[in-house]
Design brief:
This protein has 12 helices and 10 strands. With about 325 residues, the chain is an alpha+beta fold. The protein has a 5-stranded antiparallel β-sheet with strand order 6-7-8-5-9. About 0% of the residues have low confidence.
């Protein structure tokens, strides 16, 4: 918040930065770390002394690179080709990994109680009190859950892990006949400034954003509610939640028809928050992790909340563990 206000003014914070940050991180920009989330803007300021100057410079550089090339919309409009997902949802990744593993190697739907280190080997205790022994352990769960698993191994590490704050999130999917949605749906969706005092953080036009999300003549919308600035909404029952979401959609998209169907997904404590000094906190966590050969903690709580960030954290951890074991 201080960076945007200092550089671009209060209105830019309230009408542009805050809703964008809310849509991505479900976070409060007053506490969010710029260095941990969008370090590119700090680099632009350092290099060019001005954000506007940096953007103009990058735009000229892009135009120079693309000169003589055939291109589509280079400077405006939605970049549909940059948005990709799986036809059958994120479970596709898990299924694909399991299909490539030897039979019987992967156990799903199991609860882990504790992770311990004994006699140069790792022991993973399951809910049925069976023990798995391993050369290395990668803990890929929310930080507060990792703290519980590792509390006997290292109390200081567990304390730092449990200090990472989380926000909850709600996702409301609503299906309509296309003729009942007056808005042209000419984009990916929209974000909502908190200053407008609405229930929505953002709304994604799912059937526009991705192929085959709705049959011909229909529209699927995905509304996001909750986050760090609207914690109270998480406790609403389904009927109350649907009522306030539909009220906002009526005001913003002029939808007055009832949806054909709705579905609500609640994700308690699912969105890690990256407050100021988050990178220093993560560095301390990694220092404690490094004391235990063969241990890694990975996921969206540390260095990025997106799927590519999570995949990268896993790949990097594998390489580090293999190097140490060698």
């Amino acid at each position: 918040a201080s960076f945007v206000t200092r550089r671009l003014g209060r209105e830019a914070l309230e009408r542009i930065a805050q809703p964008l940050v809310g849509g991505i991180y479900t976070a409060d920009p007053q506490t969010l770390s710029l260095r941990a989330t969008m370090p590119r803007f700090l680099e632009m300021e350092t290099k060019h002394r001005s954000i506007i100057k940096a953007m103009w410079s990058e735009r000229r550089a892009m135009a120079k690179r693309s000169r003589g090339k055939v291109s589509g919309k280079a400077d405006g409009g939605a970049r549909y080709s940059q948005m990709v997902s799986f036809d059958r949802g994120m479970q596709t990744i898990v299924d694909a990994i399991m299909d490539r593993m030897p039979e019987g190697l992967v156990e799903t739907g199991q609860t882990v109680l504790k992770v311990r280190r004994q006699e140069n080997a790792w022991q993973v205790e399951m809910a049925d009190h069976s023990i798995h022994t391993a050369d290395s352990v990668m803990v890929a769960v929310p930080a507060y859950r990792a703290a519980e698993l590792l509390s006997e191994l290292d109390t200081e590490l567990a304390t730092h892990l449990s200090d990472i704050p989380y926000a909850s999130s709600l996702v409301v999917n609503l299906a309509y006949r296309r003729e009942d949605v007056p808005h042209p749906l000419d984009g990916f969706g929209f974000v909502v400034p908190a200053i407008e005092k609405r229930s929505l953080i953002a709304c994604s036009f799912s059937s526009i954003k991705f192929a085959d999300r709705a049959p011909e003549g229909h529209a699927l919308l995905r509304a996001f509610v909750g986050g760090a600035t609207q914690k109270h909404l998480v406790d609403l029952d389904d009927n109350e939640l649907l009522k306030i979401v539909q009220t906002d959609l009526e005001d913003i998209l002029a939808i007055r028809a009832k949806p054909l169907f709705t579905s609500i997904s609640r994700h308690p404590a699912s969105m890690p928050q990256y407050p100021v000094n988050h990178l220093a906190d993560v560095a301390r966590i990694q220092e404690f992790v490094a004391k235990h050969t063969g241990l890694a903690v990975i996921g969206n709580a540390y260095s990025g909340i997106g799927m590519p960030d999570c995949v990268h954290s896993g790949e990097a951890a594998v390489e580090q563990i293999l190097d140490r074991l060698k």
